[in-house]
Amino acid sequence: MARKKVKLAYIINHSNRKATYKKRKYGLLKKISELSILCGIDACAIIYGENNPRAEVWPSTIGARSVLSKFMRLPELERRKKMVDLEGFLTQSIAKVQDSLKKQMEENQRKQMSYFISHFIHTGEYNPGNVNLNDLNDLTTIIDNNLKEIEGKLSSMEVVAEEETGNRVEPMHNHVGVQERETNMNYAMKSDDEHLPLDLPFDDVNIDTNGLWSI
Amino acid sequence: MARKKVKLAYIINHSNRKATYKKRKYGLLKKISELSILCGIDACAIIYGENNPRAEVWPSTIGARSVLSKFMRLPELERRKKMVDLEGFLTQSIAKVQDSLKKQMEENQRKQMSYFISHFIHTGEYNPGNVNLNDLNDLTTIIDNNLKEIEGKLSSMEVVAEEETGNRVEPMHNHVGVQERETNMNYAMKSDDEHLPLDLPFDDVNIDTNGLWSI
DNA sequence: GCAACTATATATAACCA
DNA sequence: TTGGTTATATATAGTTG
Which InterPro entries has this protein been placed in (chains A, B) (predicted)? Predict the structure, then answer.
């Protein structure tokens, strides 16, 4: 702000709003980059401007996705009674962490898959009630990817139909239990300390949380 | 910066770095909130400080996840030749958009599931090769959720084992094709315009993209 | 380690070409 | 609209309890 202390409220005038947006977006990115560099922390920015349904991503889509993957996993960690040892999470090389996540994910997926298959085979119906759809929005991309892959594989693969199968699929009772333990295996206990939300609002900032947010 | 023009480089001294981090984090959040309010855009911040493996999230985990879900879907949209109509994407009520995403997701999942089931039934093996594991890191949370749900359902459900099943599951060839079309059905064509990465670096900022980033 | 306090560096609202 | 310029509001490095 300069020349006048602007009052913190939605700028009605379209031109002004756009101009301000542009200037401040630049300023914000600069600040973020400075913070990243000065303090050596990982950072990315995702900005949905007006009339721009596609977000602007910085420093790159790849970088942002890496960071966000880490975040998307957070709520679950919280739910698991904050058992993660952050020290390790941050200091281990990312590759290592991702590797272990990958392994765990494979395991989880295998088990989930087994259950669905079992359920499908036994009842003959696909039951989406088992899936929490609210948490699955971000799955869309992934599933689309998979469909692409599947499409590719199918075109180079003969699926031989068989009328029956002798395969027996076990229900998941103990698998789930085991999974529970394995999931936390690599982590040390960590005591609680609150961390969200940050202490807001600022001095004269009155935040309207109506609606979503981005950056 | 004040009292001295600080040189833009990692602050070696631990105390200084932490102090700077704290001050600047506050400043950054303030800036973000201002931008949100002044320009009416959705915004969230996710910050991984040093020694803090659990991100600080603003304005809330829920808000951030909503925003990020939108983002996580982006790369796919790009891949789909930028066919999204952003106007609609932003102006439609979030609920509406999420609803359609949800429907699409259900459909995708159903089809993917069908393929896996088919493959499993015919070959008797779970083939993780169909899944792109790099893109699936963010799945972990979701899968864990599902396992929780499954666990719950199982404890109140009797799975009756059957030795055989007459169910025939068709492979997915045309389903995939159909899905492809349906996915884009609700979107208008949109011409290209570049949007990432943003024009960086700033004047004297020399960004080291080695490693990941966050905020 | 932390808050408060400056002195300065930066960001940016209003203006204008 | 887009891009400078300038006057002012803010952010913050360094310093002090």
Answer: SRF-like_MADS-box, TF_MADSbox, TF_MADSbox_sf
